[in-house]
Design goal:
This protein is an alpha+beta fold. Helices cover about 55% and strands about 15% of the residues. Helix 7 packs antiparallel against helix 10 and helix 10 runs antiparallel to helix 12. The longest helix is centred in the last third of the chain and has 68 residues. It is elongated and about 150 Å long. About 30% of the residues are buried.
């Protein structure tokens, strides 16, 4: 081994000089290939939506009314909106599926990096051949053993360095010769480098660069999935809140209908009303029973939706646990600047970042396609020592003494006639980049439209709250008047029940308007690439350890 290392001393010097062009590269797949790197904060953190920042009038700060938290819930679970978001972030099955994608995409980077790994190769060949006698030469048998070991190191510039150590042992039986057996040893180092097509780190790192862009795009899509799941959890939470609140309205309406039935019976006993009025009141009670049944079914459906999103092990989909929203909606008026919101959405939406990364990738593809138009011009250089004698010791001495050194230089030139394939690839790359630029403009218009629509919906829902509240106040006054008129024998049960139904409908409309206003805020946040809440969300991909 010491002899072998001394033989390769020149090779070691050359390899150290070219170390910076070999596969030992720092920061591969993290910007080391010259690609655009998106900060991890942009890809991993979901910002919170500060609606006051985009409001033309700043509302007074209010604290949400939350119910006390319960631990280890029995058949009932009081759940705040913050707990809902946390459970969705940790347990949602759709999100778990998405979190594997970045880790899968990252394996493509390491796969492309392997193209710059050095390759050790070794082989041993044994050959035995018999030659017949001819021309006075007696028959003989030749034994040939050829062990070989080498190392090939790819260069970042597109070539490679190759170390080779072929050794040959030949013995002939049946013949006398001064070199029988004979030993041949020819260690060498060779360099092959392209000078035009395929030359340069920018060209040869294209596979790593594309894989890294795909990895960042996957992270952007995963962040979008995190945002979408949490927004879906918020919507399901407020839908359940609305369903439970409407169920309470229906139950109160049933209680009012029952009170009206009692009043009607008293009036009939007093002779102030006829018996059919009691029947009308009983019909009104039956109507409210049906309304309660439908409202309870709607609550169960909304609960099941929320349980599916949360995927908590203590409240599976088929569990009888009743979820009680512990956070009440806070109706705060916001007068938003839709243009500022749209500008923020263009800067924060992951769809825009994904398209921008694709545009940068297409620009890199154009550079690669331009390089493919060049002729293939490569230079080859080889330096070797040779040893040949009748003993292994003498053969190694010849190599160590550098008695028989050799040099070889060659140039290869290939010029395609027409080169239409490379030209077509360049045209395709240029057209793909133009297509992505058009997609970016198209997506920008769609995002601005989504923001403007969400802002208008939020303003509309606020106006609905004001109108519904006024309607509730007036409907309550009408219901009170109808009850007083009934007690004086001036109204029938039907008129009282109609007034109470209108009151319940007005209360349900107010609940729907308030919860829709909360959902509109969720939609505004999602349209701008953020989330409602007090803290940022920092997600991590799922990585399986070996």
């Amino acid at each position: 081994l010491s002899r072998l290392f001394s033989v390769l001393s020149v090779s070691s010097v050359v390899s150290s000089l070219l170390f910076t062009t070999t596969g030992c590269i720092d920061r591969f797949g993290t910007g080391g290939t010259g690609e655009t790197v998106v900060p991890e904060r942009v890809l991993r953190e979901v910002e919170t939506a500060d609606l006051e920042k985009y409001a033309t009038t700043r509302p007074a700060a209010t604290q949400p009314d939350t119910r006390p938290e319960q631990k280890n819930p029995p058949p009932e679970l009081i759940l705040s909106i913050e707990e809902c978001r946390l459970a969705a972030l940790h347990n949602n099955l759709d999100l778990k599926v998405e979190l594997y994608n970045p880790a899968i995409a990252q394996t493509s980077i390491t796969e492309q990096e392997a193209a710059f790994e050095a390759m050790f190769n070794a082989a041993v060949n044994y050959q035995q051949s018999k030659s017949p006698s001819a021309g006075g030469v007696p028959a003989f048998t030749q034994y040939n053993v050829v062990p070989d070991a080498g190392l090939q190191i790819p260069l970042r510039t597109g070539g490679f360095i190759k170390f080779d150590n072929p050794f040959q042992y030949i013995k002939q039986s049946g013949q006398t010769s001064p070199l029988n057996p004979s030993y041949t040893y020819t260690p060498s180092i060779s360099i092959n480098q392209s000078l035009l097509r395929g030359f340069g780190f920018d060209v040869n790192a294209q596979g790593i660069r594309v894989a890294f862009y795909n990895y960042q795009q996957t992270q952007a899509r995963t962040k979008l999935a995190v945002t979408r799941v949490l927004a879906e959890a918020d919507r399901a939470y407020w839908s359940l809140f609305a369903s439970r609140a409407i169920l309470e309205v229906r139950r109160k309406q049933y209680d009012l209908a029952q009170l009206q039935l009692d009043r009607a019976r008293r009036q009939v006993r007093a002779g102030m009303l006829a018996e059919p009025d009691v029947v009308r009141a009983e019909s009104g009670v039956a109507d409210q029973v049906e309304a309660i049944i439908l409202a309870e079914n709607d609550v169960r459906t909304r609960e099941r939706d929320l349980k599916r999103i949360l995927n908590r092990p203590d409240i599976p989909l088929d569990s009888p646990t009743r979820i009680l929203p512990g956070t009440r909606p806070s109706a705060i008026a916001y007068t938003l600047d839709a243009k500022k919101l749209a500008d923020a959405a263009l800067a924060q939406r992951m769809e825009m970042l994904e398209i921008e990364l694709q545009i940068v990738q297409e620009a890199a593809n154009i550079r690669l396609a331009r390089n493919a138009l060049l002729p293939l011009l490569a230079v080859q250089y080889s330096y070797s020592h040779s040893g040949f004698s009748g003993s292994a010791h003498e053969t190694f001495d010849q190599v160590l003494n550098k008695d028989f050194a050799g040099h070889q230089v060659g140039i290869i030139l290939n010029i395609p006639l027409g080169n239409e394939a490379a030209r077509s690839q360049l045209r395709r790359a240029l057209l793909s980049r133009l297509q992505q630029l058009a997609s970016k403009e198209q997506r920008a218009v769609q995002i601005r439209q989504e923001v403007f629509n969400a802002a208008d919906t939020m303003e509309t829902d606020w106006q609905r709250i004001l109108a519904a509240h006024k309607r509730v106040v007036l409907a309550a006054r009408v219901a009170d008047v109808e009850v007083r008129q009934f007690n004086q024998g001036l109204r029938t049960s039907t008129e009282v029940l109609d007034a109470q139904t209108r009151l319940a409908d007005a209360q349900s409309s107010e609940i729907a308007a308030i919860t829709d206003y909360q959902v509109a805020q969720v939609d505004i946040a999602f349209a701008t690439g953020t989330l409602l809440g007090a803290s940022r969300v920092h997600w991590q991909p799922i990585v399986e350890r070996d």
